Amino acid sequence: MTDSEGDVSDARRVVLLDFFPSGRSEGGPRGYERQPLGYGLGRDSFGLFEIVFEEDADVGIGDSVVVAPEAEREDIVDSWEIDHDDLSGGAESELEYVIREIVESEEDRFVDFFNDAQPITLRLHQLNLLPGIGEKLRNSIIDERKRKPFESFEELEGRVNGLHDAQDILVERIMEEIREEDLKYRLFARREDAE
Question: Is 94 left (phi over 0), alpha (psi -120 to 50) or beta?
């Protein structure tokens, strides 16, 4: 099942990181002993999900599925949010690649972060939460975006002296937010049960 990019108001778009068509060998979660099982990453929230599928589900790694309220589900039996430590080894190995693909394919969304980032406190700015962005680089980004909003990663890196690999910086921060449960500030990865 592939999601249509239409209205998924209460739904979550999830990319499958790993899929076990016969379930997990050590037994299934929550009473779903041998049903197909997948691990996924939310495209919008970067939340991690465990998903139980119907026996005949036609899905695979890299597919996009919609985890929606029960009335709207097609071949999904159940799903719930999990912690990073609950991922399978295969899902863990795919995680960074999928995050990178999301950042690249939704460039406008992430370039807008650089255009819209705001102070968190008097001494801390959202931009400072990104790896390698100190006070000087933060001020350069803010000065440049005042002149004209950034339209692409290429333009951002070209206009801000010293900023290299903006996509890598974002991927690194998103990975940190997914792995670390106790971060005080989150920019991208939100736990749905914490909202």
Answer: alpha
**Residue range(s) in the chain whose domain bears CATH number 2.40.50.140:** 12-87
Contacts of 141 (CB under 8 A, 6+ apart): 114, 117, 127, 133, 156, 160, 163
139 Cβ contact list (under 8 Å, min separation 6): none
pLDDT 10s digits, 53-78: 988 888 999 999 988 765 465 678 88
106-194 has which CATH code?
Answer: 1.10.150.280
Reference 106, options 40, 44, 163; nearest CA is 44
CA atoms within 13 A on the CB side of 92: 8
Q: What type of residue sits at position 43?
A: R
Helix/strand/coil for 163: coil
At the topology level, CATH places domain 12-87 in: OB fold (Dihydrolipoamide Acetyltransferase, E2P) (2.40.50)
Distance separating alpha carbons of residues 1 and 72, to the nearest angstrom: 13
- Quote the radius of gyration of the chain (alpha carbons, Å): 19
User: pLDDT tens digits for 82-137?
Assistant: 999 999 999 999 999 999 999 999 999 999 999 999 999 998 999 999 999 999 99
pTM of the model: 0.86
